Amino acid sequence: MKTSVCLLALVAVVAAEVYFTEEFNDDSWEQRWVQSKHKEDYGEFKLSAGKYFGVESRDQGIKTSQDAKFYSRAAKFDKEFSNKGKSVVIQYTVKHEQGIDCGGGYVKVMRSDADLADFHGETPYNVMFGPDICGSTRRVHVILNYKGKNHLIKKEINCKLDELTHLYTLILNSDNTYDVKIDGKSVQSGSIEEDWDLLPAKKIKDPDAKKPEDWDEREYIDDAEDTKPEDWEKPEHIPDPDAKKPEDWDDEMDGEWEPPMIDNPEYKGDWKPKQIKNPAYKGKWIHPEIENPEYTPDDELYLYENWGAIGFDLWQVKSGTIFDNVIVTDSIQQAEDHAAETFDKLKVDEEEKKAAEDAIARAAQEEALKKQEAEEAEQQDEEEAAKEEEEGHDEL
Fold it and tell me: Which residues contribute to the annotated binding site?
């Protein structure tokens, strides 16, 4: 039995495939990533490890370098593949080192026959995944193409807003489930059918059903036996009984004097009969539902028969985003291993360097504050000395 389990595990490892990786370790990336010619003025990606890094060649990626530009570059996989009967994992890192205010940080994964030289916003894709920040929009997009139409996930997934590197992972499983991870931790998961409107609703309101005319949805009604008290009607405002006509009031010049109006303390407001339980109350009428004849289940919502290219097609107001450590595989373990060799190591170096820089900045701030306090104290001493000297002259 143990032998069988070991053999199965070995087969699983052997069967795992990595279809695409890119770490942008040197200038050769430009030969693999095609620059779109759809527009003439695309922004330029440049190699950069950014402000914080450990090993430059390991931690560098491609960085958006021009403000207020569209960017569009894509690369083909070594071979196309189908994810039938297995998971597909899309993973990469993003660093918005510029403190992004409006711009995309997502990838699009396409078929192998995508025209990368004409890659643009309307180019068909299987999946669009990653962060998008612009004003109040600060979310992780997960858009699935189904039968030629793009569908955005119905759940809100918040993205990271700081200036450090973050790892974004999307897993589509063959049981029609998904998992979105940020920095290796799941932030949203569930059923593809439930969390996207790919299929018509299973049930719809019965078009032949109508609420009965005598259906009473009023839980409470006016008490027919309740009557308004005879002394209820009081004016809301009355003349101020304590007001007196001013002595200098001239009726001929000022007109006839009238006391000012005040709130009537005996005013009770509009009378309404008390409420009682409605004996005819039947509850809120619920429209009956029937099976939707247009609904057909699909056990392969996760499936794309052809994967073969990946690209960045985005707009940025302020440039400075760095993309790196791209991997597309059918193995969650392979994706985790890749993150351990790239993102995890960068994260440690990045956090240490930022912490050191923050410490230096705090020390400089404290020193500046001490200097300011010393200058203010010195100025105060000088002012007090000058005041004492002036008082001495006055005494003489």
Answer: 106, 108, 125, 132, 313
